[in-house]
Amino acid sequence: MTELISPELVHLDVALGDASADVIRKLAETVADAGRATGAEGLFADAYAREQKTATGVPGGIAIPHCRSEAVTAPSLAMARLSRPVDFGAKDGPADIVFFIAAPAGADQEHLKLLAKLARSLIKKDFTAALRAAATREDIVRLVNEALGLTPGGEAAPTATAAAPASAAPAAAAQSTAKRIVAVTACPTGIAHTYMAADSLVAAGKEHGIDVQVETQGSAGATPLPQSVIDAADAVVFAVDVDVRDKNRFSGKPYVQSPVKRAIDEPAVMLTEALSAAADPNGRRLATSAGAPSSSAPEGRESVGGQLKRALLTGVSYMIPFVAAGGLLIALGFLIGGYDITKYADTITVKNNLFSLPTEFGPQAWGPVGAYLGAVLFKIGSLSLGFLVPALAGYIGYALADRPGIAPGFTAGAVAGFMGAGFLGGIVGGLLAGYTAHWLGSLQAPRWLRGLMPVAIIPLIASIIASGLMFVVLGGPIAFITKALNDWLSGMSGAAAVVLGIILGLMMCFDLGGPVNKVAYSFAVAGLGAASATNQAPYHVMAAVMAAGMVPPLAMALATVLDHKTFNAAEHENGKAAWLLGASFISEGAIPFAAADPFRIIPASMLGGAVTGALSMGFGAGSKAPHGGIFVFFAIDNFLGWVISIAVGVVVTALATIGLKRYVGRKAPAAVEAEPVAA
Q1: Residue 354 CB contacts under 8 Å (≥ 6 apart), including other chains
Q2: Contact 636/621 with Cβ under 8 angstroms?
Q3: CA–centroid distance for 589 within its chain
Q4: Could you give the residue numbers annotated as active site?
Q5: What percent of the chain has pLDDT over 70?
Q6: pTM for this structure?
Q7: How far is CA 20 from the centre of its chain?
Q8: CA 356 to chain centre
Q9: From the centroid of its chain, how far is CA 291?
Q10: Nearest CA-CA partner of 210 in 252, 249, 173, 185
Q11: Is the peptide bond between 188 and the residue preceding it cis, with omega within 30 degrees of 0?
Q12: Nearest CA to 508 among 523, 495, 522, 518?
């Protein structure tokens, strides 16, 4: 097994900067210089993106930045003992001991288990004290290998015993008279926080006389807790940043839920809260898939605004496949059957087949065969696109109330579509359904009724309430607003259309696939359902949005070609991939560049996106397909003008990027020159 740490990966008593990004960048460079990564920038971008999701500082002056990255060629540990501590987000102050865990994207289980074992060791005070007292880099390597049960060469020591996962505590403990708590810990990467949180909860339980057994759902594998242990527990702790697998196993249990890092910072507080929930007859209970918010959104820290944003983004993410598939099928229908196919599709699909081809209809692109196949494709696409509003509403309900929210959400969305309330009605209906189902799931039902709650009672009552309100109170006013919005778009031309194109271009390039980008994209795809032969404005909006979204990755690819010296090897590799990603309308192709240098890449991208959006609207380009980029050329009206719009925006962003990188100071926070490494 390749050794995880060696002396050249260790920095002792040095200053690596004033911010976490500085330290992470220097440690990424250390890993790359040791030949364990293809490039420092790609590794830094992945690690810093992970750091921005959840700070990696933990109590005791420790930080564990970590990531999985395509740039890593061998699992590695880089370590720094800082002479000037740096804030990594821990509650008790900055960190002076920093371990950078770099794992390949496809790391094997044995290496992942060792990395997880190191993370667990870092909450042990004697181990961290030894790290602070070590005199040489070789001493650090020896201490780490001992903690991992490895020989100095990185091989498993014959006498070493692998640490048992927290979930492997003897089941007999559940029979004691102590209070019993089961927990699940999980973080996005599944390397460090998952296991540190588990050990922190177990240690706090021992200190307070509580039997705690933990299921770690991490990258090193997960051993489910026995159902008998779960059934015997007084309460459940979910310390998670991602979905809990098979959450229904914990049905009926009192529970608390928070981000995984809170279990490291405040394990005793979480255990106390769990026992308080168990002692309260009216406390929160986890119903079978009911009333439980999505576990990817920790309840303990989520604001109402954050909950709304998460629900909307969930609805949009599940809606997009319906829209993308439906839109492309409609575009293929137009290509094969001609643009008059909208007039004849229903009749052809009902009356004709491959053995009785239509001949009596208007001109078709490919004759009778084209008329029939075009009608079939168009009709399938139209039916798929018809799920836009119900799917949006259904999965908003799902985000707020788990599976019991799906049926009421879909029903409310269908009502919104029936009443002409459209996209806005779907949002309102989904929120009504989700919050109603969540409230119903929080009620204390008799034990004999609990099994029926998620599959019958909650969907029935929530559908009546949400859809009833849409019919009786909200549907009409929302339909009026929707019609007014469509009329406004239909009448938009000239300067007003160009201004809208600028706004949409700025939004598409602001966060490259994030919430603002999704709002602009959702606005565009929602309008496709209202497009018609007399209302082409939604097609123009869709074209502007897709064109602007293609600009950032294509511009990054062009910039790496025009100014070879400004970009490192990893960025050149990312640039090669960005050509195809950009051409396919995958804005995320620019994320590696933006993550490494956001203060220059994002403004440059927004500038080019605004230019492209304005030009596309000015040229009157239209897209009948909601996705696909250059590859759905057949669905683009005024294709030449659309391509020119993209090309101009790409050149503007590429030149702006090069100019900012050359003439504007190094990205903040910049890497600080390291002091000489102690012997």
Answers
A1: 372
A2: yes
A3: 15
A4: 66, 187
A5: 82
A6: 0.49
A7: 22
A8: 49
A9: 23
A10: 173
A11: no
A12: 518
Q: How many CB atoms lie within 10 A of CB 238?
A: 27
Q: Is 42 exposed, middle or buried (0-12, 13-18, 19+ CB in 10 A)?
A: buried
- CA distances in angstroms from 626 to 504, 516, 523, 551, 636, listed in the order given: 15, 17, 11, 16, 10
Please list, in sequence order, all residues whose beta carbon lies within 8 angstroms of the beta carbon of residue 76, skipping any fewer than 6 positions away: 4, 5, 9, 31, 34, 36, 37, 101, 102
Q: Are 265 and 229 in contact (CB under 8 A)?
A: no
Q: For 539-591, list the strands marked E by DSSP.
A: none
Determine contact, residues 618/610, Cβ cutoff 8 Å.
Answer: no
- Length of the chain as a residue count: 679
Express each pLDDT in 426-479 by its tens digit: 889 999 999 999 888 888 777 777 778 888 889 999 999 999 999 999 988 988
Q: Quote the pLDDT of residue 160.
A: 37
Q: What is the mean pLDDT of residues 54-58?
A: 81
pLDDT at 603: 93
Between strands 95-104 and 66-69, the pairing is: parallel
pLDDT attached to residue 616 = 94
Tokens describing residue 159: 């006498």
**204 phi, psi to nearest 5 deg:** -65, -35
CA distance 391 to 73: 41
Q: Could you write out the three-class secondary structure of 616-628?
A: HHHHCCEECCCCC
If one counts every other C-beta atom within 10 angstroms of the C-beta of residue 170, the result is: 11
* Phi then psi dihedrals of residue 98, to 5 deg: -125, 120
DSSP alpha helix (H) spans, 213-361: 227-232, 260-265, 267-279, 304-337, 341-351
- Could you give the CA distance from residue 177 to residue 12 in angstroms, rounded to a whole number? 48
The pLDDT score that the predictor gives to residue 515 is 65
- State pLDDT tens for residues 198-257: 888 988 888 888 999 999 887 555 678 888 899 889 999 998 876 677 777 888 888 998
For residue 63, give the H/E element and its range.
strand 62-63
Is the pLDDT at 671 greater than 50? The verdict is no
Q: Tokens standing for 365?
A: 């692109």
Using 50, 70 and 90 to split pLDDT, how confident is the model at 513?
Answer: low
Q: Within 10 Å of residue 13's Cβ, how many Cβ atoms? A: 14
Instruction: Give the separation between CA 465 and CA 491, rounded to whole angstroms.
Output: 37
What domains, with CATH codes, occur in the chain?
Answer: 7-148 (3.40.930.10), 166-286 (3.40.50.2300), 304-479 (no CATH), 491-663 (no CATH)
C-alpha angle 75-80-86 in degrees, rounded to nearest 5: 120
Asked whether 185 and 108 are in contact (CB, 8 A), the reply is no
Amino acid residing at 11: H
- How many angstroms separate the CA atoms of 526 and 346, rounded? 23
Q: Tell me, what DSSP letter sits at residue 362?
A: S
Within 10 angstroms of residue 360's Cβ, the number of other Cβ atoms is 10
- What pairing do the DSSP bridges indicate for beta strands 235-240 and 255-258? parallel
Here the tokens at position 199 are: 């050990």
- For residues 652 and 659, give the distance between their C-alpha atoms in angstroms, rounded to a whole number: 11
Say which residues have a Cβ less than 8 Å from residue 580's Cβ, sequence separation at least 6. Answer: 589
CA–CA separation, 42 and 353 (whole Å): 54
Q: Where are the beta strands (DSSP E) in 540-649?
A: 622-623, 636-637
- Rounded Cα distance, 546 and 521, in Å: 8
> From residue 679, how far is each of 9, 12, 77, 138, 644 by CA, in Å?
13, 8, 19, 9, 59
Q: Answer whether the bond into residue 446 is a cis peptide, omega within 30°.
A: no
